[in-house]
Amino acid sequence: MQRDIDAATKTRERLSAQIVEFEQAITRHAAAAKQAALTGDDADLDRAEAALRAAQDRSATLKAALSEVDEQLAGLERNKAEMLDRKVRTETAAEIELLARKLTEVGAVFNSTTARLSEHTRHAVPIVYDALGLDNFMAICRADVPATLELVSKLLRAHADAVLDGRAPAKLPRPDKASAPAAAQPPKEPHFKYQPIKAMAQ
Predict the structure, then answer these.
(1) Residue 9 main-chain phi, psi, to 5 deg
(2) What is the pLDDT of residues 65-119, one digit of tens each?
(3) Do the beta carbons of residue 29 and residue 51 sit within 8 Å?
(4) For residue 52, how many other CB atoms are within 10 A of its CB?
(5) How far apart are CA 128 and CA 120, in angstroms?
(6) In a 3-state reduction of DSSP, which class is residue 182?
(7) What is the pTM of this model?
């Protein structure tokens, strides 16, 4: 593909240079024809007009050829861009699929660990009150995480399909650290102080 583009580009440059050359020749022959007409030299006028017509015909032919080469070059560039776009989209879809698989893989480990940890927190609750919050959190994880992971994986694969058929951008958005919300700042020291109020004598 690139070889064809390079060849078409060289042809375009050659034709452009020839057109400039013959446009200059047209100017020269037109001036010569005008001068011959002014001096009344019919022989010189015939030669100048013949040369002028030849230069005009050659320039028109070269311009037509240049127009065709421009169309060919535009088509080649368009095909190259489409091939590159397909390549990027295929790579992006593969990256999304890998992410979905990793989520499923790590999620399975997480769910297994959560189930085991939940067994221990359940036994710890009757002994330590503070274990109740952790046990509740484990219950929420066991109830919600598997279904949520499945949903996210399905949505990721749907997005990969959209990337491949052109409904979604070819490249994935990347997390922007600069856009992460800043942590809350601690409250500043107040500019006033509380003073104890002394009891007033009755």
Answers:
(1) -65, -40
(2) 999 999 999 999 999 999 999 999 999 999 999 999 999 999 999 999 999 999 9
(3) yes
(4) 20
(5) 12
(6) coil
(7) 0.62
